[in-house]
Amino acid sequence: MLKFFSKNEYEQIADLFDLGKIEDIKYFRYGYQTPKVVITTPRCKFIVAKHNLSSKKVVVADMKIVPRVALLHEINFLTHLKHLPVPHYVKSKRGKYLENFRGYAVSAYRFLQGRQPKRITPKMAYQLGKFVGEFHRLGSKFKKRMLGRRRFYDLNPKVVALMYRYAKKQTHPKLKAVVEEVRLGVENNRLPRGFPRGPVHVDIKPDNELFIGEKLTGIIDFGNTYVDPFIFDVGKTVMWNCLGKRGLDGTLVKKFLAGYSRKRKLSQREKHYLKQSILFAIYSHVWVDLYHVPIKYVPKSYTLFLVRKFLPIARRLEKEQLRQPK
Fold this sequence. Notes:
Layout: H1 7-16, E1 24-28, E2 36-40, E3 45-51, H2 68-80, E4 99-101, E5 104-110, H3 122-139, H4 157-167, H5 173-176, H6 179-189, E6 197-200, E7 209-212, E8 215-219, E9 226-229, H7 230-241, H8 250-263, H9 268-272, H10 274-292, H11 300-319
Antiparallel strand pairs: 1-2, 2-3, 3-5, 4-5, 6-9, 7-8
Helix pairs in contact: 3-8, 4-10, 6-10, 7-10, 10-11
């Protein structure tokens, strides 16, 4: 359960970051780890986050463990994306992006306007493509190391073997029935080395997208960002945003890739591995949450949703040819 500060404590935090006198507070009562509120001041609207940071090191990425250095690298990277509609953090009166407060780290960034989309249109897919292309183009120029980042989908054989010990402990028959299929999907579609790499979001989905009408106004939640091949991030974004009733929507995929190519051109090798990147995106995402069920990080209902929604698409895509972008 998320635990928030008191109103008086949020007023103290607003003073720390020189945000102005609080006129209104709204609470985000969802998520797994970071309590966030929207505060309105005469200056602007801001998101204030309460971070429970850790120095613990793990082999398998853990959503409950975020080192302070990892969060600072995330903030530094977002500051590098000056003209993109992403969270832009504000410095405190002492010139810091993170301040210690009541045993936690606290931060603030400007509120992004917009609503999460209920469906993606071709025009919206094109804008998402432009965003991801520019995000990757700018990311390729970001030379600072992103230490301590959770690498949820860096599923090398050692990590998969460790996760398998838990993933195979499913109690729900439908989840138990797909463990081996998903594990093999991960193993068979793991991307080879040698692709262009940089910071990847890996979670650009409607929950983390903001639109006003069909205009993209924000991409949020960079908590899972780490350095990996850009083509994997393309696959993850296609997985979440380019679906029709029976599988991938060819029009949405085409529009997304057209937008992407406006900002960054895929290499011929990346184009060749596009289908595999989508398959790995699906299998790896389901695998991670098959692992999360026995350790009680996510409810069975969520992983069942993933299995029902995405595994049929992966099975169909395994048998089909995906038209490569020009």
